User: Fold this.
Amino acid sequence: MTAHIRSQELAAALIALGGSSGVDPGALAVASIVQTLLGIGVYVWTALALTAVFRKVGVTPWKAWVPVLNIWELFVLAGMRGWWAAVLAGGAILVGIISTVIAGLFTAAALNAGFGGDAGSAAGALAAAVIIPALIWLAFAVFVVILEVRMLRAVNRGFGLGTAYTVLGVLLFPVWASIVGWGSAQWRGTETVAAEGPFRRGTAAVADAPTPPASSSTTSSPPPAAAAPGSGPFTPPPAFPAASDAPPQPPAAAEPVSASPWAPPPPPAEPAAAPAAPQPWVSAPAAAPAAAPVAAAPVAAPTPAAVPADDLDERTVLAARRGPQASLRLPDGTTVVLASDVAVLGRNPLAPAEAPEAQPVPIDDVTRTISKTHALLRRTPEGWRITDLASTNGVFVGADESEVSGSAVVTDVFHLGDAELHLVEGE
Assistant:
């Protein structure tokens, strides 16, 4: 009976407090609606700005409107694991539930203490109901800021922006996204150091115009190999045919293998070089001073035909590579000869630190599912092995399209994302 009387007194006191405070329920409803509209407006603003950012980096723009997926893509763009976005979303929900439960328990304890007449215990319980959830949220906020700083620093580095933009992104994310997406900043790519554990390993580095010429060199390498023996315009320098003939073939001059396709036909090529000797003689009237000594050298060359052949064999450092070479058939139908034992594949690949000598093989990917530096292909005693370089969409081998974890042997067909490639031995 006493508790019932006290509860009625408490309710009357609360009503009196509300009436004395002059709070209008209608005003509270209007404030709540305005707050909701402001939240929706900020989210739309952020999504529009992220859409512009995603267009610059080649990510599908609609992903900017999906709450967790947009942050997922930013983590991937920074070279980190995308599921950190899911960790943050799930952590916020979990922290909210825990904080609500703790606040409810301490509030109930405060009410019991107040009904029992213990004012000190009631005040302490109410303070704990506020302080403990606040500390839990503070710890979670520190964790979020650490991850956000790491992610924004890598993304800003890819856009060529400094530390000030990282601070701006942490404090005012919509403003940062607007400046990056609608401003003049251009995407240059990120460079992430290999790391173990939850963060992404491997390198996804900026690649500018130097790499595309490699595609023309690799794809055009096989045709010049067949045309080299019979090409008259390059045979006139008879004393050094290999040295003068090499520059047209290898724009990627660092690879001596570009001369290896020329090595197999030297014996039949030398007899063909003998009739080519009259060509300098025919062209001698056009360039009399230069052609005269050039024509004199091939005149003596036909008699000791074996001498130039031996000389050529001595200069052919890659004589051990006379066996058939492997090649890659790309999704657009072109074929690239694997001129090295290591090749790096991707839309715009750079050789990783563990294989700086790797042959870059750019792939024109219409599916947009191949990463810039996607996979590493290496010749081993057991055959060709492919290694996933922390790509976004993974590597799949075999007819059953099993996903590669680490590295796997490749015999014929394999997939980089949705793009299909064929490894052909002996071509």
The chain has a mean pLDDT of 73.
